[in-house]
Amino acid sequence: MRAGLRFLKGHGTENDFVLLPDLDGQLDLSPELVRRVCDRRAGLGADGVLRVVPSRLAPEAARDADEAPFFMDYRNADGSAAEMCGNGIRVYARYLVAAGLCPPGHLRLATRGGIKEVDLEDGPGPVSVDMGPAAVGDPVDIDGVAATFVDMGNPHAVVPVGSVSALGQLRPARTDLNVEYVEDLGPTAIAMRVHERGVGETRSCGTGACAAVVATSLRIGAPRDTAFDVAVPGGKLVVTWRADGHVVLCGPAVLLAEGVLDASWLGA
Amino acid sequence: MRAGLRFLKGHGTENDFVLLPDLDGQLDLSPELVRRVCDRRAGLGADGVLRVVPSRLAPEAARDADEAPFFMDYRNADGSAAEMCGNGIRVYARYLVAAGLCPPGHLRLATRGGIKEVDLEDGPGPVSVDMGPAAVGDPVDIDGVAATFVDMGNPHAVVPVGSVSALGQLRPARTDLNVEYVEDLGPTAIAMRVHERGVGETRSCGTGACAAVVATSLRIGAPRDTAFDVAVPGGKLVVTWRADGHVVLCGPAVLLAEGVLDASWLGA
């Protein structure tokens, strides 16, 4: 093998990513390359790619470079660019600190969805990110149930159910938005399964967990600033709907491997 | 990250593998570790693990060490040990040559299924492996069709169809053997889709491609030593049923990445 491109592999509640450090801003990350890297049989396999690039070297983020020195260039597995990813940015922040590129504590990170605030300590502990304000809309009908509509930058419908494990295969009547099925496990704990728009059921969804907690808080009358445990198939998240209206997502961020992609394979 | 275990990722017609070089024979490859590594969300993701160990250091292969200096310790993604894997052994041989552990040309490799003969040149060309003799049995009924039964060490039923692309989702009535659906593309070319026992449809199956060519040769009266092109969803294989009764499988073997697994992740 000839060393081509350096990579890391990580995940947050089993939403998984290939990180591509590009500290010189020299990487031409084509949609074709993203698709090849994310291919789960012929490539490394991931839900998406996180290119790690200094904001001053990224046209999308140069204006934010003073406040947020690093830009999260997030691409979906199909090669398209995305604004934000709540699980991805936590893995991204873990890398910046683990690699010594940022000190632990409070980080401001540039994304296509604006500057995001992230908090983490050094080591393997949880990473939290301010996902911004939630906007609650008119209820929407999902399978005959009045679901709570929550806009977290992307649209969600939250459906309370008696048991998420009893649901079987998720087949919501609406597939033009993300649908969260939520089971109450206690006064500040829920279980969630999510059917993502354009994807199907996934192991976890950061904005979905936020929407689920907003809808649950409204339904049961929980006060703001309550930390909810959210059990998803891929692990456990903690979500807090703050008094200022912002939703904070907190959970694990794991880096499990690093290495290099073969130069011949990249060039093929 | 702290460097833990070294790995490579490769595939043969999109049957994908994590290789774990263990030249000192010191790796305790537990079923739990195999499952974690092969997990496609929380791990690296693969159909199986290929531990690369000198035969003299492996109890299963020590008796073969003079003839076959390396042992392919193959594990399925569920952690169980397997005898052989036609796509896996080609990727394994590619690694031995690429890493300078064996010279290119003719290799004899120890497996739980005995010593296997492999041929490859240096560089990215195809790798061929003698998959041993085929045994043809009594026809079996698959969905009302008399399918050819072929034993390649594991059981196969081969069903000729007009078009593999027109089949939709494969749901063979028999799931206690591997079922290959085969379409004739020309006098020495077939397309194949395979439903593997205990797995479902896969992108490729080495023994399945061999069984498909044996059954097709008998059905159309092709002479022995005819090289058949076999198009599978994951790529292209060439299979030859030799005059001596052995079946030779030839096709690509790709190494696309190498790196290290994080020590903390391994220890968790």
For the record, the CATH class of the largest domain in chain A is Alpha Beta
Low-confidence stretches of chain A: none
What does the overall shape of chain A look like? globular
Based on secondary structure, the structural category of chain A is alpha+beta
CATH fold-level name of the largest domain in chain A = Diaminopimelate Epimerase, Chain A, domain 1
What is this structure, in a nutshell?
Chain A contains four helices and 18 strands. With 268 residues, chain A is α+β, with helices and mostly antiparallel strands.
Keywords:
15% helix, 2 domains, Diaminopimelate Epimerase, Chain A, domain 1, alpha+beta, 268 residues, 18-stranded mixed beta sheet, homodimer, 18 strands
Structure commentary:
With 268 residues, chain A is of the alpha+beta class. Chain A has two domains: 5-126 and 253-267, Diaminopimelate Epimerase, Chain A, domain 1; 133-250, Diaminopimelate Epimerase, Chain A, domain 1 (Roll). Helix content of chain A is 15%, strand content 44%. Chain A contains four helices and 18 strands. Chain A has an 18-stranded mixed beta sheet that branches. In chain A, strand 13 and strand 14 (200-202) form a beta hairpin. The first copy, chain A, is globular and about 55 Å long. Chain A starts with a strand and ends with a helix. The A-B interface holds A 1, 7-9, 11, 14-16, 40-45, 98, 124, 203, 234, 254-262, 264-265 and B 1, 7-9, 11, 14-16, 40-45, 98, 124, 203, 234, 254-262, 264-265. Strand 18 (254-262) of chain A pairs antiparallel with strand 18 of chain B, so a sheet runs across the interface.
